[in-house]
Amino acid sequence: MTQVTLHHLSKRYDQQHHAVRDLTLALAPGRVTALLGPSGCGKTTTLKMIAGLLPPTAGDIQFDGQSVLSVPAEQRGAVMVFQNHLLFPYLSVGENVGFGLKMRGQAQAVIRQRVAEMLALVRLPGYEARRPHQLSGGQAQRVALARALVVQPRLLLLDEPLSNLDAHLREEMRQLIREIQQALGITIIFVTHDQEEAVILADEIALLFEGQLHQFGPPHRFYEQPANERVARFFGSRNLIPGRKQGERVSTALGEFQVAASPLPDGPVLLTFRPESAALHPTRPPADAANTIRVHVTGCVYAGTHTRWQLIPAGLHAPRLNLHAVSDPRLGAWLREGDNATLYLPPENIWLLPAQQDA
Prior knowledge:
Elements: E1 4-12, E2 18-27, E3 32-36, H1 43-51, E4 58-63, E5 66-67, E6 78-81, H2 93-103, H3 108-121, H4 137-149, E7 155-159, H5 167-184, E8 187-192, H6 195-201, E9 204-209, E10 212-217, H7 219-224, H8 229-234, E11 239-246, E12 249-252, E13 255-258, E14 267-273, E15 279-281, E16 292-302, E17 307-313, E18 323-327, E19 340-344, E20 351-354
Parallel strand pairs: 3-8, 3-9, 6-7, 7-8
Antiparallel strand pairs: 1-2, 1-4, 4-5, 9-10, 11-12, 11-14, 12-13, 14-20, 15-19, 16-17, 16-19, 17-18
Helix pairs in contact: 2-3, 2-4, 3-4
């Protein structure tokens, strides 16, 4: 198990284009880390620098406390699996998987044994004689994983490995990658733009925007405690209400809200809550009800397991804010587009963000 540490890592292609800016991360050994962000945020560039395929402009990369900047890619013990599996079409599955061992001069008996072990690990036992053109997309990706793992690398680096698969195969591959990590205890770093994929697969997520790290930590923190407005929006917290904090209360144009203790100082803040963390009721609240917003339903979408609601504050003089809620689908029997309703925000489900953001 290898610990990867990035110290003030930067990559600049020219004076105008900074792909990665001053990135510092400590990735725990034997864990799965997601480099997450939109296209062009620097996540694949970071992965290639770790692999040794791109030199950084500045900073350091360490494996287990030792700098690897002067170590060529083929000696770092980090193998990379790309979106396209890149199997050799003229070799069998067994020959593809065993290629790295053959290049290292391993005996044929050792190669056969290791190939069989890796194919069993990726749920393709007995596929040695098949050709790449006989494989489905999911099977080809599993063969690519087996080929990477057969050389017993220190690190497994995955560049959006599931992006070309359909939803069912993506789910299977997520489970497989988790099984592989648990079986081998290997450190895995993978790149994705898919929040759901990162949350399901990763022990920790590093979220990048424009080459800069905005938040790093376990998946639940991104939902429950986003670092800033940009992180909150990326993870689906579209309810953002300007207000002013005073102790454990926040005054807004929609009223005053009781909140849980926050590390932010008193002053301007953004009050945010996730759509699924608010309770939507078709009835009018009591006059003294706390943490409620009277809302008007502007739209609803039935999604099977839940219903998504688009809301605006009700009243002639209410501020024009778009709000979003998620409810049990049965609420649709009592509430329709055009109705008024009450949105209740439990104090423990409210999170406060700094008011001033670069985003």
